[in-house]
Amino acid sequence: MMNALTRDQAWHRLVAARPNLSFHAMDGLCLDDVPLASIAAAHGTPTWVYSAATIEGRLAALRAAFAGEGLAPAIRYAVKANDHLAILGLVRAGGAGADVTSAGEFARAEAAGIAPGAMVFSGVGKREDELRRALAAGIGQLNVESAEELEMISGIAAAMGVAAPVALRVNPDVAAGGHDKISTGRKGDKFGIGFDDAGALYRRAAALPGIEAVGFSTHIGSQIFAPAAFEAAYRRVLGLIGALRGEGLAVRRLDLGGGFGIPYDDGTAFPFAAQAAMVRRVLGGHDLELIVEPGRWLVGPAGVLLARVTLVKRAGAERFVVLDAGMNDLIRPALYGARHGIVPVGAADAAGAPAPAEVVGPVCESSDRFGTHDLPELAPGALVALLDAGAYGATMSSTYNGRPFAAQVMIADGAPQLIRRRQTLDELWRDEIVPPRR
Ligand SMILES: *Cc1c(COP(=O)(O)O)cnc(C)c1O
């Protein structure tokens, strides 16, 4: 009895901890008060559902946390987290720019009305044509990841007769990040310039034609919760900046990167007030223009992946709940061992006593599993929501196993709107060319 009660509270707790979710006795699970069952009825499954109000609210909260410390960093949203034009439109309307990693993301952000001057171009392998395009449009900042790239940009920009605004991405050699595959700031990670080489490279940047050395950037990983991890990185870079300024070099900007964590299961929220206070304490009074590049934190909690139970398979004592959403839709569990909370959607379904179930997708890979969750009995056709799927969800999906891209819906001003229709089957091969054979 006690056990059942504790278990019953498990998914209730997930809902209670998320202000955009609610559970109604009649309508079941709602996002922004819209019953998710009604969205499944209108648009089918699997479907991504996003709350515009959540993104707007989080953007405002992030700004307010820094404003509370007298800081107004430029916000450059990491487009790779969720690149839908409607979401980029919300970001732009909220006064933020973009952190892009390719010509594709650059063009998307531009299409959403974000000015190139409000964009930062990051990434370890920017191509020449991508750099030319960004420079021609007046990109706000290029985050340079290597000496080789710096020379390449110098050549391109000088030939174009422009000065490329360059920040060197320093690898401060601190271990951070919720998982080995999303930690980026250690020695041996492929990202950034080694801390010991960064000073010399900045001197070189300051002297190169076609380069305007504006400062440094650092991004130590993702899904980080401790301001202390960021503080260690910022202090190292600040030391570097002090030394270079001491030599008479101008360093005016520090890009603090992203990586702010969100609780996927039970867990506490990222302490943004403490983070902002730390940024003021460590970096305030140093005459630095600051940039932050949040991705996951802004959009992750804004989205759910709505899926339907295809069948329930019993194997001995095991209960496998097979969904119509798989790793082709949401790859994070397979890729990083990530866990997303799973909540029943239907009011009647949710009433049953929870018991452990292994939730899996339909893809022919053993790694296509969403973990063990305490769920009530779910019959084929029942709906579930995979929580916190707004970031690194749809952008990472594929059509593996011949599964079309899922539909996407955004709830704005209380009304759900289709923002991407489900891909049709013939669109799966529409762009393929079959050469004629004799
Ligand atoms: C991915 C990335 C971000 C965003 O990371 P989140 O963990 O989503 O906040 C920011 N900056 C750079 C350079 C990145 O590669």
Could you name the key traits of this structure?
438 residues; Lyase, Ornithine Decarboxylase, Chain A, domain 1; 2 domains; nine-stranded mixed β-sheet; eight-stranded parallel beta barrel; 21 strands; 32% helix; disordered N terminus; binds pyridoxal-5'-phosphate
**What radius of gyration results from the CA coordinates?**
23 Å
Are any ligands bound, and if so which? Answer: pyridoxal-5'-phosphate
| CATH fold label of the largest domain | TIM Barrel
Query: Can you identify the CATH superfamily of the largest domain?
Result: Alanine racemase
The major beta sheet can be summarized as: 9 strands, mixed
Amount of helix: 25-40%
* Overall morphology: globular
| Uncertain regions spanning at least 5 consecutive residues | 1-5
Portion in strands? 15-25%
**Averaged pLDDT, please?**
94
Query: Which structural category do the helix and sheet elements fall into?
Result: alpha/beta
State the total count of DSSP E strands: 21
How many domains? 2
Instruction: Please work out how many helical segments DSSP would assign.
Output: 13
Distance between the termini: 72 Å
CATH class of the largest domain: Alpha Beta
* CATH architecture label name of the largest domain: Alpha-Beta Barrel
Pathway: Amino-acid biosynthesis; L-lysine biosynthesis via DAP pathway; L-lysine from DL-2,6-diaminopimelate: step 1/1
Cofactor: pyridoxal 5'-phosphate
Function: Specifically catalyzes the decarboxylation of meso-diaminopimelate (meso-DAP) to L-lysine.
Keywords: Amino-acid biosynthesis, Decarboxylase, Lyase, Lysine biosynthesis, Pyridoxal phosphate
